[in-house]
Amino acid sequence: MDKKYLAGLDGGGTKTKCVITDFNLNPLYTCQGGPSNFLLIGTQIVSETILSLILDSISYLKISMDQIASILIGTTGAGRPSDAQKLRNDFLHYAKSNGYLFNSFNVDSDARIALEGAFSGGIGSLLIAGTGSVIFGKDKNNRIYRVGGFGKLIGDEGSGSTLGKHGLNQIAKEFDGRGEKTILTEILRRDFGISDSAQLITEVYRNNFDIASFAPKVIEAAQNGDVVAKKILDEESDELLLHVKSMYNMIGEETLKLCLIGGTLATENFYSKMFIKKVEQYLSNIKIVSAENPPEIGAAFMAKAILQTI
């Protein structure tokens, strides 16, 4: 029986998307299931989800498991090769215990499949600015580059967590009388019920206040003319420009396509407009574009590419 299908899966913290394509990457069937962050929920639950989605797909398409030539999942938590290998091994063991063997099954990061999908497997760069920040790129020789992604303690410049942290820091300074007056303080009281330094310390250090959740409030304040909030956004958007400039130098293309993803930049807001304007003004060789395909198609691209290297 011909092995003529590919499967790509996009695993996230809330859901997992699956697509079955032909060898020309034309989608034939899509479905979705539960979350795939195996570092949080374990490989057993994620393995059950993956197998369920594959079985759903082959049942709908009336094909056999053996006809799927290659499967790849890109998922949250698989950024380190050792973690990706653990999910791969545990899934294959789980599948075998249920009577299923696979021609090719591989695991990679959610960022990598997003990069492949955005540029249909070609050259480009992907700036992710959500809770954290990192930029990935791919050159004409299929080499993958990464800038940033050092996490909230020593990195994540320009991200939601950093915007939120700087916003709360400015509020702390105003509480103490050592900083400028900012409407961020009133927003914190209005939306979170925090009106003094004691409450702020308690919420952050005892009640695990979601610092990144304050980032939209910093953007709101800047939109409403707050000088302190504008300064935060100005400095952090400059940090993201440095990410992009570094990636441009690494890839070595005269013009580099850049796709923006993540809630901080991918949605239209005061901060994203500021960043895009700076790219247009200072990095004229960068072209901001929309993703050509969703991440699950990127996973199918990678599933096919793996076959070509065997």
Short description:
By secondary structure, the protein is an alpha/beta fold. The protein has helices at 38-41, 43-61, 81-97, 110-118, 151-154, 160-176, 184-192, 197-205, 215-223, 227-251, 263-266, 270-282, 295-309, and strands at 5-11, 16-21, 27-33, 68-75, 105-109, 124-129, 133-138, 144-148, 256-261, 286-289.
Give an account of the 3D structure.
The protein has helices at 38-41, 43-61, 81-97, 110-118, 151-154, 160-176, 184-192, 197-205, 215-223, 227-251, 263-266, 270-282, 295-309; strands at 5-11, 16-21, 27-33, 68-75, 105-109, 124-129, 133-138, 144-148, 256-261, 286-289. α3 links the parallel β4 and β5. With 310 residues, the protein is α/β, with parallel strands linked by helices. The radius of gyration is 22 Å and the shape is globular. The mean pLDDT is 93. The protein has 13 helices and ten strands. The strands form two sheets. Strands 3-2-1-4-5 form a five-stranded mixed β-sheet. It has two domains: 5-120 and 293-309, 2-Layer Sandwich (Nucleotidyltransferase, domain 5); 129-289, ATPase, nucleotide binding domain (Nucleotidyltransferase, domain 5).
CATH superfamily of the largest domain: ATPase, nucleotide binding domain
Summed over residues and divided by their number, the pLDDT gives a mean of 93
Give the uncertain stretches in residue-range form. none
- Spatially, the strands of the biggest sheet line up as 3-2-1-4-5
